[in-house]
Amino acid sequence: MNYLDVDFTTDPNYAAGFNGYGDTERFAAYGDDNPTYPKEKWNEIAQANKFGCDDLVTRIYNQKQEGSCVANATSQAVEIIQAKQFGKDRVVHLSAISLYKRIGRSASSGAVVSDAWDEINAKGQLPLNDDANLARFKHTMPNTGFSTPYPSGWEETGRLFKGLEAFSINSMEDGVSALLNGHPVVVGRSGHSICYVRFMLKDGKRVVKYANSWGDWGDAGYGYDSEGMMSSAFRGAFALRAITFPTFQK
Amino acid sequence: MNPRPKDVAVVTIIALVILYGVRNHGSIVAPSGPSYTAIVRESSADNAAFGQLVIGLRQGAAAEFFSKDGRRLYVLDDDGTDEAGTQVIPADSLKGLPLPAIQVYSKDWKLLNSESLPVDASVDSVLATSRRLGG
Fold first, then answer.
1. Which residues of A touch B59 (CB under 8 A)?
2. 3-state SS class at B3
3. Is residue A93 a contact partner of residue A59, using CB atoms and an 8 Å limit?
């Protein structure tokens, strides 16, 4: 299988950016407020599932050479929940740098995952400065460019894109269950953060599919982690369940 | 003068249609024009089957249906809020309605109809229910 258990650190796209999970212990645990499944049920549910969160992905991010993977993976998760709540045709593409600037110290410093959740929960983030968003929103930003200043009064637009419900993932059972239930999981490993989108069986083996943020990389932007790799990633990750319903979506 | 049997039949059919409409839609005529369908659920009940339903509704013909002619489909938590922290779905509209539920709103967000959704609802059954409720 191609792109399985990729060693990110040897890839030319790699820029160290995952500095650990931070304090996700203070989040509610996924299993405390969501249905979970024992290991012996995973294959059966995975085989019955026709869809995964990858069916809600509307674009693959590209962080370029900045250490903003945590912000890119988190933004991907937010876009997936947008697609779920409002429809793929109503997804507003987001600016990862508008999040990363608040959780990283420099273009290459990297960030911790819990900070990303704290920021999207508290202040949200800005839309990407594509043509559609420029015509629609007062404040936008590019996806990359740590030195880009925030537009004045950006918080007014940022709060339209806030996260509402996230849960810590600290076990295989919670992580796999989140994916089987259709909740994206922001994880990190090997110095890089990615967004897990689907638990599946591939060539008879349990794998997880993830959306990377390296543009046209891997399997059309995606890679796969084996059961062993995902077990190390499910230690302080978070699953996103709900975001704000902004009035402009009405 | 006695009514002709044909007239009686026509009147009876019209009456039955009206009764059916009132009973199933809460009004005689399903509204025309754009409408918004909301699937409202308690998000802590999101299980694998519900996840499949929601993602399935965002694919292919279902996604096309809900984006055509001004229609929209929302999947919302019962206590989901907007950016000001205001609850999106009025709590009154959910009173006595077991979740998950399907609600159909007019374009100006007046609730037209709502009913509970079976926990094992399929994409096709949601489409049919939405249509029946005026979506």
1. 51, 55
2. coil
3. yes
> Alpha-carbon distance A56 to A139, whole Å?
25
Query: Tokens standing for A163?
Result: 């996260």
Alpha helices in A147-240 (DSSP H): 155-158, 172-180, 227-233
- At residue A176, the pLDDT reads 98
Structure tokens at A189: 């490993």
d(CA B103, CA B89): 10
User: Could you tell me the two tokens for A212?
Assistant: 């990377």
Looking at chain A, how many residues does it have? Answer: 250
Global pTM? Answer: 0.91
Contact yes or no for A33 and B44 at CB 8 A:
yes
Peptide bond into B100 cis (omega under 30): yes
Query: How close, in Å, is residue A186 to chain B by CA atoms?
Result: 18
CB contact under 8 A, A89 and B63: yes
B37/chain A closest Cα distance in angstroms: 11
**For the segment A150-202, what is each residue's pLDDT rounded down to a tens digit?**
999 999 999 999 999 999 999 999 999 999 999 999 999 999 999 999 999 99
Query: Would you place residue B11 in the very low, low, confident or very high pLDDT band (cuts 50, 70, 90)?
Result: low
A66 closest CA partner among A94, A25, A107: A107
What confidence score (pLDDT) does residue A105 get?
Answer: 97
Residues of chain A with pLDDT under 70: none
Residue with tokens 């796209």, as numbered in its chain: A13
Residue contact A159–B83, C-beta within 8 A? yes
The arithmetic mean of pLDDT across residues B6-21, rounded, is: 57
The residue among A47, A50, A58, A85 with the most chain B CBs within 10 A of its CB, best to mutate, is A85
Query: Which chain A residue shows the shortest CA-CA distance from B40?
Result: A85
* CB of A230 closer than 8 Å to CB of A223: no
